[in-house]
Amino acid sequence: MQRPHENRQMRQRVSSSSLNHRGWLAILFSLVLLLQACSDSGVVIDNGSGAGGDNSGGGTPTGEDLEEPDNGGPSGELPPVSSVSNLDAQDVAASRFLAQTSFGATPETIAELRDTTFEDWIDEQMNLPVSLTEPYTRNNSNGSQGDARHEAWWNNVLDEPDQLRQRVAFALSQIFVVSDLDYLLANNQWGMANYYDMLSRNAFGNYRQLLEDVTLHPVMGVYLSMVRNEKANIAENIRPDENYAREVLQLFSIGLYELNERGEAVPADNPVPAYTQSQVEEFARVFTGWNYDLVTSWETNNLGGGDTFTTPMVTDERFHDTGSKTLLNGRVAPAGLSTRDDMAFALDTIFQHPNVGPFISGQLIQRLVTSNPSPEYIQRIVSVFNDNGSGERGDLAAVVKAILLDEEARNGHNEDPDFGKLREPVMRLAHVWRALDGTPGPLSEGVHNTPNFTLSRIDEMTGQEVLQSPSVFNFYRPDHTIVPGGSTLSPEMQIMTEANLASTHNNFHHQVYRFNDRSDLSDDNPRVTIIDLQPLVDLATDPDALLDWYNLIFFAGSMPDDMRQTLFDYARSLGSDDAGRFAAVQDTLFMVLTTPQYHVQR
């Protein structure tokens, strides 16, 4: 699965003094673009002067300094994007669609999408073979180190054709969360890879089967301590562990409050809890009596090799609570059920709860399309979750298709200023590498690396890495608001800290200026992924053509006109010879990648 490196001729870089001068100019123009982005009306930053919305001075705002518009928004105005007229409307629509369905649009994938319909493209994607991470992880790791798992994941999302499946699996990994920050899981990377592949296989299956596969996976058994969960034994002070019982309800299925089909907690003024503590305790009794497969006993600490963490857990009836359990909606699991039948009854009970459709559908919309879907959008998708048209409940393939083809997904950006979502950090990096033909460095042995961090450590730079969240609540909460106490949601903003932004932008700066197809790596790191800027240099003969490329690939046609003019003026100032065009590409590309507008997927 390792990508072969193409040996490109490395051409000499421009002089360091010239680069430093241009670097300062690029930073200055980046600030101009930032100020342009901040000039639109939006969330008000009060400088504490008591003058209301006057943001002419003051320091960094606190939570109390931020205000949302009355009556729920919108928080701004639709951005002016008349420059989209330079682009083919079909290409723009394809780029937007690919931003929601893949790890980033490229010229090639846009061209491919022109030859089919969005619906047919989705059907073709759903029929592609699953790109897996476990085989590569096994072949390149003894299981105790995570580098190979991360390499496999990045190879898949950058190069493999099943982009929609990989995008949905990534979304599911942020709902059904496990993390190898757990010590035992950190040393069982075959199991971690197998868990992710389980999500990939289930991405277009049925939610009920996914819920069972998650429940019985030994990685989840370890992470939320369901494995070797025992029935109560008062004499030995043993009580069933409530960890998985609580999170399967709160995070994996129905959420905290009763919801209507529009995804709204009801009643609005005093929402009713979706479950009680006593019901958690009853579910905890259900999830007793499960042990690792491939071990000799319940008590042994010898868990064997990595395969113990890749095979579903098995029953040990001695430790299962066989009493009756009162679960959700008045359903009672009768006494005497086996460990497996008790679990099936409980998962069926969860699956039939009316909250599951709005809870899961709403989060999938957030991960793929927009952080603030309208209640009507959610309701339309919930109707598909409840019945795919053939009487099947929980058909994820039908749900995903409905999410992506919905009128709001396709045209909501034209009507709602708050439409869209922040691009997740790993999505931004993946998109840059895909769009610019990122190729592993000449001494990397086919492995991608960022300039500043190996892939297994980019959480230190961005706050995010796959299956490495700080808790079961993911990297960010789906209900995280931009303004404390407000209503406009932006989950990804929870990790958009000053430190994460600065380190990410430094990484892009190094990528653009030090690790491109003209770099001389004799005095630099030959293991870093190289981006190909030559096609953009060729385009830069006509600055308008270069800016059209940026607008299509990175903005899906939403580049504001004032940004375009600023970039145009700067590019023209650098000259039209090869050196000037190369400098224009480096500088404008870095500016584009650090603009607030590129951080937003609309």
Short description:
This protein is mainly alpha-helical.
Biggest beta sheet attributes: 2 strands, antiparallel
Portion of residues in beta strands equals: under 5%
Strand order of the largest sheet: 1-2
N- and C-termini, Cα separation = 33 Å
Mean of the pLDDT scores?
90
Q: Give unreliable regions as ranges.
A: 1-17, 38-63
Number of strands: 8
Give the overall shape: globular
- Helicity, as a percent range: 40-55%
Structural class: mainly alpha
- The number of helices is 25
CA gyration radius, whole angstroms = 26 Å
Describe the protein's architecture and organization.
45% of the residues lie in helices and 3% in strands. It contains 25 helices and 8 strands. The strands form 4 sheets. Strands 1-2 form a two-stranded antiparallel ribbon. A two-stranded antiparallel sheet has the order 3-4. A two-stranded antiparallel ribbon has the order 5-6. The chain has helices at residues 16-38, 89-101, 107-114, 118-126, 134-140, 147-159, 163-173, 183-186, 189-202, 207-216, 218-223, 243-250, 277-286, 339-351, 356-368, 375-386, 396-405, 407-411, 425-435, 459-462, 498-514, 534-539, 543-555, 561-572, 578-594, and strands spanning 44-45, 66-67, 290-291, 314-315, 325-326, 332-333, 421-422, 600-601. The protein has 602 residues and is an all-alpha fold. It is globular. The longest helix is centred in the first third of the chain and has 23 residues, at 16-38. Mean pLDDT is 90; it is low at 1-17 and 38-63.
